[in-house]
Amino acid sequence: xxxxxxxxxxxxxxxxxxxxxxxxxxxxxxxxxxxxxxxxxxxxxxxxxxxxxxxxxxxxxxxxxxxxxxxxxxxxxxxxxxxxxxxxxxxxxxxxxxxxxxxxxxxxxxxxxxxxxxxxxxxxxxxxxxxxxxxxxxxxxxxxxxxxxxxxxxxxxxxxxxxxx
Length: 165
Prior knowledge:
With about 160 residues, this protein is of the alpha+beta class. It is built from three helices and seven strands.
């Protein structure tokens, strides 16, 4: 049985086409942050971080009648300029990069053939735009979620089904 994290890696690979991105990581948020920090130490890998699809673990699996339902949380991340205004973030990051990646992710999931029964529409989830994503404190970001300044689309409670073995 192929683990969901590997199936999801194949979904992200479908998004790439002729590009080498988006990149993909999975794990706990701190682990992903640490792996991104490690990439900063390598002359080549420091430029191979974003855009990134990050699948956050742990995730739920509900088993019933040969179907496994997963409830996933993930983020699509892109490096940003910390001095951008909200308008600049939407014009320079969300519209040209993050929104197309979000749409591409949904299409790649649909086309992957992994999720059963095959869905033709968008699987149930909550989408959150996260301009200059950080830990909120008194109406401002106290610190970044990751060490780099990032704009993100967070997808929470994404429900997908797979046939169990």
